[in-house]
Amino acid sequence: MLRHAATAIPQRDARLLLAHVLDVPADRMTLILRDAVSAPQRDAFDALVARRAAGEPVSHLVGRRQFYGRWFEVTAQVLDPRPETETLIETALEVDFTRVLDLGTGSGCILLTLLAERPDATGLGLDLSEAAVELATRNGGALGAHKRAAFAVSDWFERATGRFDLVVSNPPYIAAEEMPGLAVELSFEPRMALTDEGDGLSCYRRIAAGADAHLHPGGWLMVEIGPTQAQAVAGMFTAAGLGEVGIRQDLDGRDRVVLGRKPL
Ligand code: GLN
């Protein structure tokens, strides 16, 4: 069924779903492939395959997803962590920071990954969605980062107090007019995590405008972008007074991150 459905990798998806039903790690599946499967397990697997074939993301079906080597609980109320966002992680890990702000934190995967990679750092994750804040808080607990990560409901910088060495964000950047043409899978994610209901750039305007007041001198602002947005966002960063403005590519060679530094 999956071979004809909205998935590019049917065998991997089937394996992940079966591993979930059998409650074994996906990389151990080969060891038990000859074991019998009970009727309830087969029914549960068939039901998940049918939902996957209708476009529901694997992460929603199994309730979690790996990002930068760690597992995060994922629900339909947050953006599904994506491999290209690891480019933002790689870029952030090039600089020094001890205090991080993550705007539109969703599952918390960006902030919590950065804190896990930098054991002396602390951070604040903000999101307009209460469900996202609850989920990110749970993910922080599961990763043992609850003492170093705080999460709160906030409209962008609204609830951010103090200054940070690093401000990161993967905001909704799909333009409203692009939404109807998107893959069916994205319809299972919250619309507010995908589009700004405008030209796709309005969140960057908000973020660039607030950066100076929330960065320490020498602090960095780094955002994920859609591949066509690099020049526009870099221009906003420069206009906001940031220096060392740069653009980074993801593993597919597409522009994916814009960064800039508040002058010392
Ligand atoms: N990277 C997502 C996509 O195009 C978009 C998420 C976002 O707007 N930050 O699938």
From TrEMBL:
Residues of the Release factor glutamine methyltransferase N-terminal domain: 2-63
Record has S-adenosyl-L-methionine as a keyword: yes
Gene3D superfamilies on file: DNA helicase RuvA subunit, C-terminal domain, Vaccinia Virus protein VP39
Keyword field contains Methyltransferase: yes
Domain Methyltransferase small: 85-196
Binding locations of S-adenosyl-L-methionine: G104, T105, G106, S107, G108, D127, W156, N170
Catalysed reactions, as listed in the record: L-glutaminyl-[peptide chain release factor] + S-adenosyl-L-methionine = N(5)-methyl-L-glutaminyl-[peptide chain release factor] + S-adenosyl-L-homocysteine + H(+)
GO molecular function: nucleic acid binding; peptide chain release factor N(5)-glutamine methyltransferase activity
Enzyme Commission code(s) on record: 2.1.1.297
InterPro entries in the record: DNA_methylase_N6_adenine_CS, HemK-like, N5-glutamine_MTase, PrmC_N, RF_methyltr_PrmC, SAM-dependent_MTases_sf, Small_mtfrase_dom
GO BP terms: methylation
Binding locations of substrate: N170, P171, P172, Y173
UniProt function note: Methylates the class 1 translation termination release factors RF1/PrfA and RF2/PrfB on the glutamine residue of the universally conserved GGQ motif.
Similarity remark: Belongs to the protein N5-glutamine methyltransferase family. PrmC subfamily.
Protein name per the record: Release factor glutamine methyltransferase
Record gene name: prmC
